[in-house]
Amino acid sequence: MTSWQTYARRGLAVFFVAFATFVYLSIRERPTLAPPADLPRLDEDAVSETIGAEALRMSGLERTYQMSGHRTTFTDGSARYDEPVVTVEKADGRTYVLTATEIFVGPDQVEYEATGTVRLRSDDGFELMTSRARFTETEDVVRMPDEVTFVQGRMQGSGVGATYDHTHDVLQVLSEAVVTMTDERGATTLDGTAGVATLDRMRDRLMLDGDVRVTREGQRTRANQAVAQLSSEEDVVTGLELRGDAHVEGGAGGIESMAARDIDLDYTDDGTSIEHALLAVGASIALAGSNGSEGLRLAGEKLDLALAPDGSILSATGEAVELGLPAGEDAPVRRIRADELVASGQEGRGLTAAVFRRDVAYLEGSGPVPDREASARQLTLGLHDTEVERAGFEGAARFESGGLTAEAQTLEYDPRVNRLRLDGPDGLGDPRVTDEQKRVQARAIEVAIDTQDLTASGDVRTLLRATSSGDAEADGRLPGLLEAGDPVSVNAARLVYTGNTGRAVYSGQAALWQDTTTIRADDIVVDRRRGDLVATGSAYALMTLDEDVWEGEADEIRYDEAARVVTYSRAPAEPTSTGDVPGDPLAGARGPVAHLRGGGRDLRARRIDVVLADTGTGVARLEAYTDLAIVVDERWGHGVRLTYDAADGRYDLSGTPAAPAVFCDGSRESDGGTLTFYESTDRIAVDGQTRRSSNRPCTPAP
Q1: What is the pTM of this model?
Q2: Do 296 and 290 meet the contact criterion of CB atoms below 8 Å apart?
Q3: What is the pLDDT of residues 663-686, one digit of tens each?
């Protein structure tokens, strides 16, 4: 027998022994086993209970959430988890943990409701607490109908009803929202309330809606809606957008209040102060003045402000603006309106310069009618606190104060000294100043508003008008040798006018005219209070006296209103008493002798006085002194003094013993100490004795 056959026989024997044993064990009587003991149930309605149950939800190969706890399953397929822990792992790496007293799972295993002490925590420190929360597997939103509180770093909040979208990390408190923030010392830095609050943690934004009230660092804010931009740790407000009836009041720094339909505020990185403010539609801002006084007010349809940490304005732009400056110790209330504003300032000082453009209106005074007002296309202000140091108007500038009107292309106003400077022609010509008494036009003009002192230079043209206020000291008179009802024109290279005396000094080729009256000289002085006039330096006058044209030349032509005398003389001229016979009242004077032609006379002398009648321009008397010569029709004479009395047409011609008076009646010549002759007759008297002319032939006329 071979070896393999031996091994086969041994294998079959083992198989049959094993098979016989199996059959025996199967058919023999089994022993009775005791039943297992019953486990106590936690819920009588449950069909199953699992201690330490875990539910796992997968999305593809990734786990979306895991829920553990004591699970009780009911007949309708619903379940309850006691002391559950839900862990949600987001695709972006964030992890959320939800704990509660209980979680109920709906029959469809889709709807969940957590009750008891419900707490949701994120791995970055965000925590949400409530007493009831609902969520489903079809959406990533937790709904909380009861009171909720939340904490994020140093920010805390509460309200009634909320939703939390953990996919987008957005919490919305649905009513009675309250949000507070604290600093590292625990002091409250922000306290806000609203109807609804939405915390968007992915964009670091807190949105408040419905009667928003925010208090931060003593600053009170209210609006219909607000959006707060938060720091990355969500514990500091770095920006605030207010929408609808927005107001900001109080707080540290120079800002008292802000208001507009919409306000955007940018804060410093630490959130302690505003560094930028944008106000739109019905905007206004009020700043505190120094030492507790009222500060400036700025309003407009749009205002854009950059602020220093102390609240001082560093820059400002605006549209359709009005700047209000309060009254100071010596300054009135001021308001400036314009279509556009660009302003700048300094920390600790506030606005120092402002440029207003397009349709500029400047007003001074608190009454319904401003004391002063101005307009221009552009205004540049220099400011110190709330005081205007300088106001520069450009482009069709116009300034009005009382009865004074100033117009020019460029107008500089210094309110500290109440003075105007006008330069540059506008569309209506050179700069000009107009008041009740005068109109001055020149290339450059300076005028003191209070005193009416004025200087003008460069092609000066003026128009003088007579005024009468009943106050003789304040009346603006015209010289009586002119027509009282007609204005007088005076031109020169330069004008200096003194308001309190009414004295106008025209220099440099001065010329005055009215109807048929013309006066020219190097300088002309018109005294508006006295009614006097002086023309000096190559003076010339053409005027109507006694209804006749009189033409005069002298170094000086002077009119004295009180004496009603026109004097033609060599300068300087000093009035002499009528009737005095001077030796030489003009000894040492310079210039040519005076020359007067009119009324049939041609008179030359060192000085000629024309005495006018009490009213009008009729001639009452003539006086001539020194080196005089006269031609009357065809008669002539010469001497040292001549007096003519218009009442009886009498001439008295005087000489000296060394140089007796000489008179020629046309054919014969007479001489003597005093010669008297008449305008309408050929009578002549020598030293008081009347006689006919001598038989001596006349020498040539002087």
Answers
A1: 0.77
A2: no
A3: 888 778 888 899 998 887 777 787
Distances in Å between the Cα of 195 and the Cα atoms of 161, 177, 234, 235, 354 are 11, 6, 21, 21, 41
Residue ranges covered by each domain of the chain: 46-122, 545-566+575-691
Class of domain 545-566+575-691: mainly beta
Distance CA 633, CA 133 (A): 129
**What tokens were used for 425?**
């022609």
- The CB density around residue 611, as the number of other CB atoms within 10 Å, is 20
Label residue 156 by pLDDT band (50, 70, 90). Answer: very high
Q: How far apart are CA 701 and CA 671, in angstroms?
A: 14
CA distance linking residue 180 with residue 610, whole number of Å: 96
Phi, psi of 311 (to 5 degrees): 90, 0
Neighbours of 281 (CB within 10 A): 11
DSSP string for 441-485: E-SEEEEETTT--EEEEEEEEEEE-----S-TTT-----TTS-TT
- Maximum Cα–Cα distance across the chain: 217
Q: What is the mean pLDDT of residues 649-658?
A: 91
CA distance 160 to 441: 76
Residues 6+ apart with CB under 8 A from 159: 147, 148, 173, 174, 175, 176, 177, 178, 197
**115: its two tokens:** 């009750």
